[in-house]
Amino acid sequence: MASIASSLAQWATGFEPTEEDLALARRSLLDTTAVALAAREHPATGVAAGLPEAARWAVAAHVLDFDDLHVGSTAHVSAVIVPAVLASGGEARAYLAGAGVMARLGNALGWSHYTAGWHATCTAGAPAAAVAASAAMGLPAERLAIAMALAVPAAGGVREAFGTHGKSLQVGFAADAGVRAARLAAAGATADPRAVDAWFELVGGRGEPELAGPAVPGGLAIKVFPCCYAMQRPIAALREIREQVRGDVLAVRVRTPKSTVTPLIHDRPVTGLQAKFSMPYAVATALLDDYPDFAAFTDEAVNRPAARRLMRGVAADYPDTAADGLLAGEVVVEVEHDGATLRVDLAHPPGAPARPPTGPELADKLAACGEDVPGLLADPDWARVRELLSRTFPPEREGASR
Questions:
Q1: Which of these, 74, 76, 83, lies nearest to 45 by C-alpha position?
Q2: Which residues form the MmgE/PrpD C-terminal domain (predicted)?
Q3: 352 in a domain, yes or no?
Q4: Which of 97, 161, 225, 324 would disulfide-bridge 135, Cβ 3.0–4.6 Å?
Q5: How many Å is the maximal CA-CA distance in the chain?
Q6: Are residues 308 and 200 in the same domain?
Q7: CB half-sphere exposure, 109, CA atoms < 13 A
Q8: Pairing relationship of beta strands 331-337 and 314-317 according to DSSP bridges
């Protein structure tokens, strides 16, 4: 029986992208580049300045938690794959090869892998980045399988890093590991592709990845708020009724399946990064801010007296249902205010695969990433983006940590 790496490598070198696949690749390039540019002054990008280019770009693409997500695998696909492709001189087809492998590996690892504490963006990301970089270099299938095996030592990362620089840095490590593995494979390094099977079993994988379907099965979710995907739905729900809230908010009750809040590990955040993984702060920013943008996720915003008060008034009910995943069931939010109670139910937030972002929503996101971003990305091209990121995130910038 063929190894997992060999099967995925054969798929990656043999699939034929459709127009829909190519459109997804273009949107992913646009979205990932925009959120990376928005993070150009973030402290984490300075910390990462001494890392290789794929790692630097991946850290920038992920640290704001505004990047896309493959919902089925809970993996931030493009933050890993776009930098790996760009650093290797590739374009859309290499992106789709890597993104497709990452989604398939993530699906096969399953929800239990994520709930066990693994960060699927890194575990599935490192071998998938090796595929993306290898495809960009034009390597044959047998070399792709070897590159995946060479990336196994870096195929880790844990959810405990959420709310710290460690989260985006481990995503950077995964992207860089894939590029490094591909270069070693191109140079003739040997490895046993069955190492991927052994790793897959050790981290809880069962069965084999499903090869059928479009390039990226299930598509990718685009975020419209710069925070964890588990917060997109409750924020969107509250924004539907925000204008109806009168007077002081006395209490807020949130009911959603337990699986949908798995990444939300900070009930009382005190930093902007922690607030990106907090259900109480999702409620606070949705009610306080006209639009929860980057300014809503600063340390100062999180520690506003009004935000602290609202967070204390949030009561959560997370039933342990049979459904798994970040979009299981629906969220139900009740807001008690001024002698009345408002209720809203929501299944799919804006940007979800079942509710793709509209043109205006995507344009608003690009604009939120910086006044210059829409113009810079008016006609994105892989080579042009590569040059843009090289200028924006040079190695060892002045003042960077060493």
A1: 83
A2: 225-373
A3: no
A4: 97
A5: 72
A6: no
A7: 32
A8: unpaired
Question: Residue 145: inside a domain, yes or no?
Answer: yes
Residues 34-38 have a mean pLDDT of 96
Question: What is the rounded distance in angstroms from the CA atom of residue 1 to the CA atom of residue 194?
Answer: 11
Cα–Cα dist 398/89, whole Å: 27
Contacts of 250 (CB under 8 A, 6+ apart): 313, 336, 337
Distance between CA atoms of 81 and 227, rounded to whole angstroms?
20
- Number of domains the chain is built from: 2
Rounded CA gap, 256 and 189, in Å? 49
Burial of 312 (C-beta count, 10 Å sphere; 0-12/13-18/19+): exposed
Number of other residues whose CB lies within 10 A of the CB of residue 275: 29
Cβ-Cβ contacts under 8 Å for 85 (sequence gap 6 or more): 91, 94, 95, 98, 132, 133, 136, 382
Full domain range(s) for residue 257: 229-346
| Side chain identity at residue 359, one-letter code | G
What is the per-residue burial (b if ≥16 Cβ within 10 Å, else e) of 40-77? eebebbbbbbebbbbbbbbbbbbbbbbbbbbbbbbbbb
Read off the pLDDT of residues 68-77 as tens digits, 9 standing for 90 and up.
Answer: 999 999 999 9
Q: What is the pLDDT of residues 101-111, one digit of tens each?
A: 999 999 999 99
Is the pLDDT assigned to residue 130 strictly greater than 70?
yes
Token match 């009168």: residue? 246
pLDDT at position 186 over 80: yes
Percent of the chain exceeding pLDDT 70 equals: 98
